[in-house]
Design a protein that fits this description.
A hairpin with a 5-residue loop joins strand 7 and strand 8. With 153 residues, the chain is of the alpha+beta class. The strands form two sheets. Strands 5-8-7-6-9 form a five-stranded mixed β-sheet, with helices on one face. Helix content is 24%, strand content 31%.
Length: 153
């Protein structure tokens, strides 16, 4: 097997670079690292690597397609309490929430960015070994859950 240990970053095509960069910065707390000089791209970071998400200007008139990316999942530290805080932050920002789900190995909040790209924030509910074992024996399903948001004051 190839020795790949993670997805390094994701590049998303968006309609309005500046609007999207501001949204990712304000709503998800990302730092705008740089703007490409010769190409319409902006690079953003959560602070643990030089960039996690890059935004690229989509061609004028581009529409969401049926093939390709389904969503981008971002694992968080801090467990369910941090997930509840981020959920509250999304709601306070007026973000459209698609699902709040319990997976066999994690809890997740799915939501849309300004271009309708689906994003997921999730927290693991078990360690790696147990999660691998559970995943191998599960059907990969999910069920709706009630997650009480924590709103910042």
């Amino acid at each position: 097997m190839v020795d790949i240990n993670k997805v390094g970053h994701v590049v998303l095509k968006v309609r309005d670079l500046e609007k999207s960069a501001e949204w990712y910065s304000r709503v998800l707390g990302m730092e705008i690292m740089t703007r490409a000089k010769d190409f319409p791209m902006i690079f953003l970071s959560f602070g643990n690597q030089h960039h996690d998400i890059a935004l690229m200007k989509a061609p004028d008139g581009a529409e969401m397609g049926g093939l390709g990316l389904a969503h981008v999942a971002m694992q968080i530290n801090g467990g369910e309490e941090k997930l509840r805080q981020l959920y509250g932050r999304l709601l306070s920002a007026g973000v459209s929430i698609n699902h709040v789900w319990e997976h066999s190995v994690s809890r997740s909040v799915y939501f849309l960015d300004p271009d309708g790209i689906e994003l997921e924030i999730f927290c693991e509910t078990m360690g790696l070994e147990q999660g691998m074992e559970v995943m191998r024996g599960s059907d990969g399903g999910a069920e709706d859950i009630e997650l009480e948001p924590i709103f910042e004051s």
